[in-house]
Write a structure and sequence with these properties.
Helices cover about 35% and strands about 30% of the residues. The chain is an alpha+beta fold and about 325 residues long. The chain has a 7-stranded mixed beta sheet, with helices on both faces. The protein has a 5-stranded antiparallel beta sheet with strand order 13-12-11-10-14, with no helix packed on it. Strands 1-2 form a two-stranded antiparallel ribbon. The longest helix has 22 residues, at about 235-255. It is elongated. The structure holds biotin. The site of biotin has 20 residues, from α5, β5, β8 and β9.
């Protein structure tokens, strides 16, 4: 119901009379007033005029109602929202196990046990950042799973550039970087048979309105946020909507034409290729020039000996 009220208010962009609302929604005017007050409690600023009705002045910075209204395609048509969860990836995987179809999105305002790559903790305090997980059921082989991460990185960078104007780039495989610091990351987790993926959960974490001094000491040196870079607060709704719409766009391309267009877009958006890098893979460390990525999204590193080495996952530091 809250969504239908928001839809009406947004559609008009002006005052909507209590009578019109009660007719459209099939509820009494007193019930409309109650619903309006419930929305106000959630942070919506709604003007009320006895003569003209109600007008939406401002939405809270994270509005699930607005996300559902502004989504263009299938990804995000249904959203599960939580104030706090252990990890949105865990919740999404549980939903996927129960047969939840692809395109469903889990969003949490905060996470108690946010997970990063390589078993790291992902700082996820309330009211400031984005924590979302998307369930997909792509018909691709497990060896191509990196393409999902590549796709998500392309979608996130494009969305962040458009909404914030920042020159966000991708550090292989999936770090979202601004001014050499990490603004966000992607954790792709899959359940698969030997020859097919049963489901994938794409988890996206972006530091949006967080002040950098809120990060623990060890993270502060290497992390940044949209607010830190632009000096302004940004709407988490606007960024999430762009990410989901971009994902929709690229997922269609991946299904129709395979990974090639994605890989070439990724190469336009990365700050890794051509650089001297150090990569840690488990206990091994390699240095060399990040030369290219192959059709499966693996990084091709030119070692000092001149030999090429393919790397599927690891921790990459740009040296020069
Ligand atoms: C990385 O280490 O760069 C990946 C970070 C991914 C964090 C996101 S936040 C939403 C989703 N839920 C999690 O527990 N992790 C991912």
């Amino acid at each position: 119901m809250a969504e239908r009220i928001l839809k009406l208010l947004r559609k008009k962009g002006d005052f909507v009379s209590g009578e019109e609302m009660s007719k459209e929604l099939g509820i009494t005017r007193a019930a409309v007033w109650k619903k309006i007050n419930a929305l106000r409690k959630k942070g919506y600023i709604i003007q009320a005029s006895p003569a003209k009705g109600y007008r939406l002045l401002k939405s809270p910075d994270l509005s699930i109602g607005d996300i559902k209204i502004l989504i263009k395609g299938d990804i995000g048509r249904e959203v599960f929202f939580y104030e706090s969860v252990d990890s949105t990836n865990t919740v999404a995987a549980e939903l996927a196990e129960k047969g939840t179809p692809e395109g469903i999105v889990v969003i949490a305002d905060s996470q108690e046990k946010g997970r990063g790559r390589l078993g790291r903790f992902w700082v996820s305090p309330p009211h400031v950042n984005i924590h979302i997980s998307i369930i997909l059921r792509p018909e691709i082989e497990p060896k191509d799973v990196t393409l999902l991460t590549i796709m998500s990185a392309v979608a996130c960078v494009t969305a962040l550039r458009r909404v914030t104007g920042l020159k966000v780039t991708i550090k292989w495989p999936n770090d979202l970087i601004v001014s050499g610091k990490k603004m966000g990351g992607i954790l792709t987790e899959v359940k698969s048979d030997p020859d097919r993926i049963i489901f994938a959960v794409i988890g996206v974490g972006i530091n949006v309105n967080m002040d950098v001094d809120m990060f623990p000491d060890d993270v502060r040196q290497i992390a940044t946020s949209v607010k830190n870079e632009t000096g302004e607060m940004h709407s988490r709704t606007a960024i999430i909507v762009e990410i989901l719409n971009e994902l929709e766009h690229w997922y269609k391309i991946l299904k129709r034409t395979g990974g090639k267009p994605l890989l070439s877009e990724w190469q336009q958006l990365t700050s890794t290729l051509g650089r001297d890098v150090r990569i840690t893979v488990g206990k091994e460390t390699f240095t060399g020039i990040a030369e290219s990525i192959d059709d499966e999204g693996m990084l091709i590193l030119r070692l000092p000996s001149g030999m090429l080495k393919k790397i599927s996952a690891g921790d990459l530091t740009i040296l020069r």
